[in-house]
Amino acid sequence: MPKTILIGAPIDSGQKRPGCLMGPAAYRVAGLAREIVAEGHGVDDWGDLSLPALHAVTCANPAVHSLAGTFRLVCDSGKQCVIEWDFTGVWQAPTDVALISPTYPTALPIRYASATTTYNSVALCVQNFTFDAFPPFPAPVPAYRICMFGIRSVDPAEQAAMLVADIQVNDMRVIDERGLVAPLREFLDLVRREGGMLHVSLDVDFLDPAIAPAVGTTVPGGTTFREAHLVMEVLHESGLVTSLDLVELNPFLDDRGMTARLMVDLVGSLMGKKVFDRPTRSK
After folding, report:
1. N or C, which terminus of the chain has less Cβ within 10 Å?
2. What is the CATH number of the domain that holds 163?
3. Contact yes or no for 92/10 (Cβ under 8 A)
């Protein structure tokens, strides 16, 4: 039975509204482990990381908060879990790609988000974007191996950086014109050609706040319930996903746990859950 390692990273830094510290606990209550087991995976929950004291950092970009202290801890945990790894899930991690890139330089990350800032993995994992406030990234990821979906609101500093890089950006204009599946499959084809291992970073604010209110950076016009599940099903069918993080859940802002439950449902779809299996029919 394939094993899924769960690591909680309860972090409030990087958010102006406190509450994300409760994210890992909310996922446990919402039945994350139970959902994964239901799809035929073993689960090994390593609990929550014990974070060091966080200190302020100096950076010209005001969007950067006291996240540097968490970077090394998440990275070290990633190295350890890779030793036993079948599939890894990290909750609330701000430095997600650090978890796999040192051991797997062919990792290709894909990020589903609406609002991103320069403290996050996209900024950190690309050599040219490294900030002095953070330790060096252990294995920088070439920009062309990064794909972002559902972007609706971006920090100006990161937007400027992405414009001169080769990151694939599918904002909501692209998705409105082409749909979700076509650009997603194009990137999955790139992963296959590169022999890559796909890391998925799923931000709560990828979803429309009407169905996922538990995030401090709500931006209207996000994906619907059906669209989000379709994305997860296509990712599962690709067979390329090897790690996942669930980011920015703030249970304090939730409505009776609806966001946490939806995120757990999406993990189920990523793990293979379907409403109806469609057998291949001969013509």
Report:
1. C
2. 3.40.800.10
3. yes
What kind and span of H or E run contains 76?
Answer: helix 68-83
Task: Please give the tally of structural domains in the chain.
Answer: 1
Note whether 16 and 99 are within 8 A (CB): no
String of b and e for 35-47 (b: at least 16 CB within 10 Å)? bbeebebebebee
Task: Indicate whether 282 belongs to any domain.
Answer: no
Question: How far apart, in whole angstroms, are the C-alpha atoms of residue 125 and residue 128?
Answer: 9
End-to-end C-alpha distance for the chain, whole angstroms: 35
Residue 195 lies in a domain: yes
Closest by CA to 71, choosing from 157, 11, 19, is 11
Distance CA 101, CA 3 (A): 20
Tell me the pTM: 0.80
Would you write out the chain's pLDDT as a tens digit for each of its 283 residues?
678 888 888 877 656 678 888 899 999 999 999 999 999 988 888 888 776 665 555 555 555 554 544 555 555 555 554 445 455 555 554 444 444 444 444 445 665 555 433 333 354 444 444 444 455 555 667 788 888 888 887 777 777 777 777 788 888 899 999 999 999 999 999 989 988 888 888 889 899 999 999 988 788 888 999 999 999 999 999 998 888 888 889 999 999 999 999 999 999 999 999 866 666 555 4
Name the 3-class secondary structure at 5.
strand
How far is residue 274 CA from its own chain's centroid?
A: 21
Task: Give the contacts of 255 (CB within 8 A, at least 6 positions apart).
Answer: 213, 214
Residue 224's φ and ψ, nearest 5 degrees, are: -85, 170
The single-letter code of the amino acid at 134 is F
* CB contact at 8 A, 44 and 37: no
The encoded tokens of residue 243 equal 């790690």
